Amino acid sequence: MGDVEQDDGQVVAAQPIRRLRRAERREQILDAATRAFARAGYNATGLDDIADEAELTRAMLYRHFDSKADLYRAVLDRACVRLEEATGADDFDDSAIPALLRAAAADPDGFRLLFRHAAREPDFRELIDSITAASREVAHRNLARRIPAGPWLDWAATLIPAFTLEAVIAWLDAGQPDPDQAAARISQAVRGVMAAAHASH
Amino acid sequence: MGDVEQDDGQVVAAQPIRRLRRAERREQILDAATRAFARAGYNATGLDDIADEAELTRAMLYRHFDSKADLYRAVLDRACVRLEEATGADDFDDSAIPALLRAAAADPDGFRLLFRHAAREPDFRELIDSITAASREVAHRNLARRIPAGPWLDWAATLIPAFTLEAVIAWLDAGQPDPDQAAARISQAVRGVMAAAHASH
DNA sequence: TCCCTTGTAGAAGGCAAAGTGTACATGTAG
DNA sequence: CTACATGTACACTTTGCCTTCTACAAGGGA
């Protein structure tokens, strides 16, 4: 029976127990964990929070993942894979920003989790560092055609990818208005930052 | 005696025990804690890490601070106060960015700690939120003269302060080259972002 | 119908790190 | 001189939370 005896002794009809196949349940847990972790990051999120979010018991989490860290890695990995699928090889051409917006809109919790939390967590940031390092490389190559080598080139190559991510997250926070306009505005803003970076002051 | 018997039985001259008055020692602990926390944030930094950094024992930390959280708050408070002193009322006029650069250069660990770590830590972000909220307010007011109310105004008002901080931190990471040029470049970049935000697309 | 898998509920274990206590050493103010 | 605040050293307790274990319930395919 799915019935439940409450504190006051009343017996009420509870939700019939939903049974899913392993793969489905796993995905559902990953979805819930992504939402839960996205709120406060790894440390501040207890397994109970995740279990509640997934409407499951803590025990079930351990039937699908070896540990909290394992679950977190699975969450981050999935978010990374989705991001890479959505953005392609990330060549930083004009199609990159619309692709990034699509990816963020398709999985906003995962996106925020990756760049707002995981990027600052010592035990996990390596996963994200590979992405940001690659972006910096690409930006560095592209900017090197206009900006002479030196600290300002390094500065711009670090700043522009970081700025782009901030702009995308701010767009999510603003309610995802008009993706096409967003892409145009962010692209223009990036050009503005580039201009400032290679101006002679 | 400041001498110390080592594992191998040898007795060597140790550092003479440095005794400081309470206020001095407190400041020294805050300095060390700022450095230690700045590396990895609150959770990933143990009291032993801080004690090592300060060249003291854990017990001493408790003579100056009630708890780890108390110490962290003291560190953040001091960083906030220094920041506010260095930037003045933060009116976001043209003097704001040079002031921000001065503040960051004067206390780079504190600056990074505030905006890279504390801003994402649920138990402590309230301290930083007041700063970022105020910046957003100011930006919102200034931008409202050019950008019609709506999601794009909100987007720009969130993004521009965040971008400015990213730019300052990237400048720290690049080795703090030429503060005057940095201010000019960041100001120009901000104008570029503003232009993109209020363009009609 | 039978039985395996998925599921609940909750107690108990274990471990890392915070927090406390005690004993003792020593520079410095009074 | 001497008393106290500052300091070391280190063992101990507490706590929070991950992790494991046990006992039982129930859906659903063979």
UniProtKB/TrEMBL annotation, chains A, B:
Q: Which residues bind DNA?
A: 46-65
Every HTH tetR-type domain range = 23-83
Q: What is this protein called?
A: TetR/AcrR family transcriptional regulator
* Entry keyword set: DNA-binding, Transcription, Transcription regulation
Family matches, as InterPro entries = Homeodomain-like_sf (IPR009057), HTH-type_TetR-like_transc_reg (IPR050109), HTH_TetR (IPR001647)
One of the record's GO molecular function terms = DNA-binding transcription factor activity
